[in-house]
Amino acid sequence: MRKDVFELKVNLLASASVVGKKESAGPLGPLFDLRDEDDRFGKKTWESAESEMQRIAFNTLLAKSEKKENEIDALFAGDLQNQCVGSAYGLMDFNIPYFGLYGACSTCAEGILLASMAIASGCRYACSVTSSHNCVAERQYRSPLEYGAQRAPTAQWTVTGAGAFLLGKEERGAARISRGCAGRVIEMGVRDLANMGAAMAPAALDTLLRFFSATGERPEVYDCIVTGDLGFEGGAILQDLARAEGIPLGKRYTDCGQLIYDRETQDVHAGGSGCGCSAVVLSAYLLPKLSSGKWRRILFLSTGAMMSPDSIKQGRAIPAIAHLIELEAIPE
Amino acid sequence: MRKDVFELKVNLLASASVVGKKESAGPLGPLFDLRDEDDRFGKKTWESAESEMQRIAFNTLLAKSEKKENEIDALFAGDLQNQCVGSAYGLMDFNIPYFGLYGACSTCAEGILLASMAIASGCRYACSVTSSHNCVAERQYRSPLEYGAQRAPTAQWTVTGAGAFLLGKEERGAARISRGCAGRVIEMGVRDLANMGAAMAPAALDTLLRFFSATGERPEVYDCIVTGDLGFEGGAILQDLARAEGIPLGKRYTDCGQLIYDRETQDVHAGGSGCGCSAVVLSAYLLPKLSSGKWRRILFLSTGAMMSPDSIKQGRAIPAIAHLIELEAIPE
After folding, report:
1. Which residues in chain A have Cβ-Cβ distances shorter than 8 Å to B311?
2. pLDDT tens digits for A221-242?
3. Of A196, B178, B210, B234, which has the fewest CB atoms closer than 10 Å, so is most exposed?
4. CATH number at B11-168
């Protein structure tokens, strides 16, 4: 029988977050390490701006953790751009062995899971870096900003942000990664590109159910259960689905896409999304709750919708995935 | 200091290969497990045909190895389609924890390296599946087939093929994966989309040099040193570069893109390429040389060019990467 849960004995030693203008103006704005006020990060194209954001996030991580480039054994990275060029160009200046990932918006947790496995295989330090950029995603997946298309109420707002994480065996840092559960590709027939929360919620449920079933844990033992970017629509669907399965998530449930913007004033419809969303919220908001001792134990799931614009045009539904990591406060 | 080489104690237990028409007609044609005579695999779109090819390759792997779906702990997969949908749709029918990868044509070795790490982290069995489809790649990266664009002499022919590999700890199977060396992203200024061999050769050299330097090995101890898809152009460049570095590769060097087609009669210009190229050649041609005892030890590098059509239009050069695995015959 399959082993659904990985026992990981790895620590999240440090992290860094870089965001754009809208994210700076949101409720978590003051918590991010670095902000750019025009989302361009000094570059001429949005695509280069996203790469620059990854480069800055990783550099900030090295600075915060006082690590040198040549101490990092492996770098896991991904983004939403075709052929994941955001990461390839963003991190190519660092001479570090590189594993490119594509997990759509689930890439943050995917990278952290795989970096944990790299440490189990003998790496001393491994990093995960992920990003998304609103203007890049809009023109690649939907239409150029200049077109001014109206957005559906269930549509989410792709976060402009990059998060970077350093993992190692040392018994210190922001949090311990105690267990992990990799997602399966789940496709439930949702074809609406403007409602990715609905497509992703069943994938989050599948991973949660497998994790609870394999470990015997219940939602009550966690201070927080947080998904990556189901947003308001998908988050509500997940809560309904979980209740029907007899594991109500209750008030301890939240979603990074719900936390990052002010729904009343920022006009983001169903909340934030993108590889950068769960990455910057994990780094700037969730990890400090664990390292400060406010929380003891949380479940963090990054959720991804794995379609392409072409696959939707060809009539395929949206396959989704959710990777989970269990994070614990490191005892003093 | 960085640990450049992973010591892996994992065996490649079984593999499967599925190819299209042109590959069937090439010199390795009779060696592949399955062939389709019109490259459509019963599907209406080339994109769905590629997914179907992955599905068939993985099913064939399960059948050949007498494994059930629920015995596989983790599946690593990737392809060249935007958002890697070839893999997501191809493998979503299997309820197996899934890690999506993007390494361009280096994904075969990347997946095998990461599957090895998954085994080190406690998985019993892990698989890697990769594919490419000529007609999908032509219209996504270049122009639709109907356009009939003339090809440059240095251009390569994307292989229609999918390869699947089963890894585990059992001391049997096709070959032992003894060591691995992950590639770094190398960009040397090559901007010519019709000469990806030239862009990738320096990445292959970088990985080889780091592997030889970390292990103290020399090319002479290997029966074969084989790259994924440098083709004739990139392969010749790699041999020149290696000679200049004092590690001439000599006649033991070859390339999967050189092996898969007959250059004289098949009109493929600089040889084969694509995620499927190194995967099907490894499965059908290289592994049997090791399992039959004809070869004792080889180095296998998958090489990838990580640009996107948009990044080239925006004036960026082609970043490349090469992941290496050392394969040994399993003693009887």
Report:
1. 47, 83, 85, 89
2. 999 999 999 999 999 999 999 9
3. B178
4. 3.40.47.40
